[in-house]
Amino acid sequence: MLGVCYYPEHWHESRWQRDAARMREIGITHVRIGEFAWSRIEPARDSFDFGWLDRAMEVLAGAGLKIILGTPTATPPKWLVDECPDILPVDVEGRVRGFGSRRHYTFSSERWWKESARIVEALARRYGCHPGVVGWQTDNEFGCHGTTLSWGPEDLGAFRDWLRRRYQSTDQLNAAWNSVFWSMEVGSFDEVTLPNLTVTDANPSARMDFWRFASEQVAAYNAAQAEIIRRHSPGRWVTHNFMGFFADFDHFAAADSMDIAAWDSYPTGFLEVFPFSEAERTRWAETSHPDVAPFNHDLYRAVGRGRFCVMEQQAGPVNWAPWNAVPKPGMVRLWTLEALAHGAELVSYFRWRQATTAQEQMHSGLNLPGLDELSPGGKEVAAVAPEIAALGELPPVEPARVAIVMDYPSHWAAAIQPLAADFRPMELTFRWYEALRRRGLDVDFIRPGNALDAYDLVVVPTLSEVDAAMEASLSAFGGVALIGPRTGCRDRAFAIPDNLPPGPLADLTGNRIIQVATLRPGLGHPVTGDVTGAAVRWREHAETTATVLGRFADGGPALTRKGGVFHLLCWPDGDLLEAAIGQAVTAARLPVLALPEHVRIRRRGPLTFAFNYGDEPWPLPEAGDLILGDPLVAPRSVAIWRSRPR
């Protein structure tokens, strides 16, 4: 259940045996290796050196550790880049992104696909049936450092081929992109250019297609690696380590070829890079916000079709955020148990020992820099491991009664045509999740178009394009739905729907949006009625035949209800969001438990977990059979209890 990321190539071989033994001593059962080791595995073309890796795996497996082997494609070696410079990515300004760090490849290079297949095949043939190998990780953090999109000749050629398959003729392409606007029509696919380096805005339809193309490239690349691995390594699972709050490609599609999803959990780092207020960043600097890790746990459980793990768990300060706090005592233990509460099958820490050199030397590990001495985070892992062992096998994670629809193309649409500089779909989705969790509700995420009948309440914070599957699932849904702004505002060709937004959901909501206002910071449109608060950032002016629950000062609807469908026609401030969520939760007849801002709970079968991120103790809300912790949950601690039958 607990793992660690280990880099035997970084340490003298004489240390491996002791490292493996100490991992087992503190309760580590799994170890991930190899994901950045291409230059050591193949120091020159077709000159493989597997000896060191053979010995490392023998040591690790001999200590009883289960091995997750990474494919090393995130770090093409220098000799390969020199041979094949066309594999390098190009930034939006047309500059080659060169060798010297990592992720220096474009998904569009045919030569790169062949080289990737070659190294993955070599590894899978050699280690596919190794008795110590239980799983594989493809590559590392797809899209990290802005590498989903690339803008070079290889990308242009691949994009043109993608368009040929999609549109068949330039007449259809020109119609879909409305290329007659500004005389952008093309006479052949070879005339298509990449949607960058234009004088002013590039065609938004072309940009959306380019993003779709890039996302599909990521999914296809991952599937190609997974196919090779499965051919040579039967019975082992395949995963990839996604990132938190990252939407540059469709993670649902990328995970279709995986057995389990994984993500890399760095709660304090994400606090600094996500658009929290300065007050929130200060408030949660040394613990992270209570919903940062859970949001991603629940999302990746959905991406993995019910299965996920944490491949890299923060165990101390990170090195890549603008400010990098030391987590308060107890947080590494709390984050570990929290991941398990949300269904994680493995929590793997980054890394075994803090490096003394190179780019990540300021990133903590379970051991102090270069030493065989546990760090503060490592000591917490050693303490939590026996607690987890005592819990035994945990019950399955049951479906929640609330689901959030997560749509990755909506994030691309807002980036392509923001209209408001601060309209960020991930932030909006997070705030709706936070409001639900503050009521003590468990939350699932769901892929657009999936059946909704398992839920009492489904919320759609924003959904730019409502396709036929999504329209059908919402229309067939017998529960309560809450739909947010910017939903149904574009069709597949990135055009405004003929019947105006929300397009296919017009009859379901009773609304017709005739214009949109974006509201600069400091400007709000107050809302009164059954709900109160204000619109900020974004407001939709609508005609409605639905019941109006909240109105703007000019009489326009802010929140409407038609049957079981609520429609919030703005980006709500905190008060309006709380009121709108409250209306939907009440209509769905969901039991709520009002929680203080620093406490969250999560249920796993008959077990309830409580997590206290704050500085004040919190009394448990109900009597139960306490399994871990105390009835008064201490600051930065955890309690687990089994509910008694009523």
UniProtKB/TrEMBL annotation:
EC number annotated for this UniProt entry: 3.2.1.23
Originating organism: uncultured Pleomorphomonas sp
Record domain Glycoside hydrolase family 42 N-terminal: where: 5-390
Key words, A-Z: Glycosidase, Hydrolase, Metal-binding, Zinc
Catalytic residues (UniProt): 141, 312
CDD domains: A4_beta-galactosidase_middle_domain
Family indicated by similarity: Belongs to the glycosyl hydrolase 42 family.
Name this protein carries in UniProt: Beta-galactosidase
Gene for this chain: bgaA
